Design the sequence.
């Protein structure tokens, strides 16, 4: 009874926390490329600024995981969101001062907040029953819908308008709002995430006593087939999603769309990422992660191809394509996360989860950093087309892993029968 109550309390607290922090992250991302291009006049430097959010996630994911293993989920999440608030403050100063290098540092800080958002999904599943893990993750991801979908619209709409009325650059508004939202999220977790989920499991501090190096964590993942597929699912989904989403605002701006319309498209994309996640979680628990990972690859491909065949002046195809890309990402993230949790004992999970998120965010960072150069070289349409084809690799990996797992089960049953 006490375990069930603690599970529900942790779930409610984390859901309340990720709503404002996801809004801060999504709003900051939506403004990053446009603000950077206004500062520099370069699409390449604009893409670099947006990609720094992924870079920030990459460099903080493993340290945050180690901190959580040592002192618990609560203090680790609070630290990540505090860095996010500081990053939003730096980005605000960069917009006011029109200083591009400071913007890069600020977006990196916001990326640390994003790393904490990603870790929260594992925290939500710490106390969940085995057959409900994907649904627990799905509910946490779903909670971010309210913040992440409204974040770009609020950032590029009311927050920008408020900044303009105050006589400061309109794109400083999203980052001032971000400071407030990150602070609200970390305060909720600091006050209400008690007892700590890892303390309830009895694993807090056990991994930290003998912390594994990134090489050891990578080897653990590489030697477990289920973990390999889980990381591939999360990495490919992140890379396709970040690559196409990073370049979409610039593509639409080339078509003379207003900032508000661009914000709506990103909001619809974020709805695809988060709004259907309870259903996705149920499907994963019901039909298994292998099938749902394959489905995610198909949806990612269709979404990227839809965006690829849409002109800069037409927004309808962008709404549809970005919605599907978000949904495909949701399938990969939730199914991959649930599969990863089941692949390791509780005492090894936190650092492995940090390692998996490191690989996932690295894939997103590489995609984001290369997106600007790819767009300048081949254009948005070809870039999105190749991203869609890359998503089909995820389908092949899921089919191969499912076939291997089926053979292993058949062999195990045969051995049992022989005994």
Sequence:
């Amino acid at each position: 009874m006490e375990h069930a109550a603690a599970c529900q309390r942790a779930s409610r607290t984390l859901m309340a926390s990720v709503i404002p922090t996801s809004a801060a992250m999504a709003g900051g991302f939506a403004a990053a490329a446009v603000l950077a291009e206004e500062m520099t006049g370069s699409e390449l430097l604009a893409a670099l600024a947006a990609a720094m959010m992924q870079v920030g996630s990459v460099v903080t994911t493993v340290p945050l995981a180690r901190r959580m293993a040592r002192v618990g989920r609560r203090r680790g999440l609070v630290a990540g969101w505090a860095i996010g608030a500081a990053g939003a403050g730096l980005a605000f100063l960069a917009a006011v001062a029109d200083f591009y290098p400071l913007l890069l540092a600020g977006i990196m800080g916001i990326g640390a907040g994003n790393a904490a958002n990603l870790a929260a999904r594992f925290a939500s599943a710490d106390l969940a029953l085995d057959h409900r893990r994907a649904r627990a993750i799905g509910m946490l991801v779903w909670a971010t819908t309210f913040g992440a979908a409204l974040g770009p619209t609020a950032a590029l709409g009311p927050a920008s308008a408020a900044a303009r009325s105050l006589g400061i650059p309109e794109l400083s508004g999203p980052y001032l709002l971000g400071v407030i939202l990150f602070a609200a999220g970390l305060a909720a977790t600091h006050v209400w995430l008690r007892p700590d989920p890892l303390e309830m499991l009895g694993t807090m501090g056990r991994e930290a006593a003998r912390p594994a190096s990134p090489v050891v964590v990578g080897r653990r993942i590489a030697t477990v087939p289920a973990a390999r597929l889980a990381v591939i699912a999360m990495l490919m989904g992140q890379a396709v999603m970040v690559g196409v989403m990073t370049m979409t605002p610039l593509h639409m701006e080339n078509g003379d769309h207003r900032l508000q319309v661009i914000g709506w498209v990103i909001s619809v994309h974020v709805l695809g990422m988060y709004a259907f996640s309870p259903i996705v979680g149920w499907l994963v628990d019901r039909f298994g992660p292998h099938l749902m990972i394959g489905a995610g690859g198909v949806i990612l491909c269709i979404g990227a191809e839809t965006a690829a065949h849409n002109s800069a002046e037409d927004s309808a195809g962008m709404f549809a394509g970005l919605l599907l890309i978000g949904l495909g990402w949701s399938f990969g993230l939730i199914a991959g996360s649930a599969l990863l949790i089941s692949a390791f004992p509780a005492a090894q999970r936190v650092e492995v989860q940090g390692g998996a998120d490191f690989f996932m965010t690295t894939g997103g960072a590489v995609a984001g950093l290369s997106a600007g150069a790819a767009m300048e070289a081949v254009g948005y349409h070809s870039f999105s087309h190749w991203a869609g084809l890359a998503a089909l690799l995820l389908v092949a990996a899921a089919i191969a892993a499912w076939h291997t797992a089926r053979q292993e089960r058949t062999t195990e049953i045969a051995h049992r029968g022989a005994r």
Observations:
- The chain has a mean pLDDT of 89.
- The radius of gyration is 21 Å.
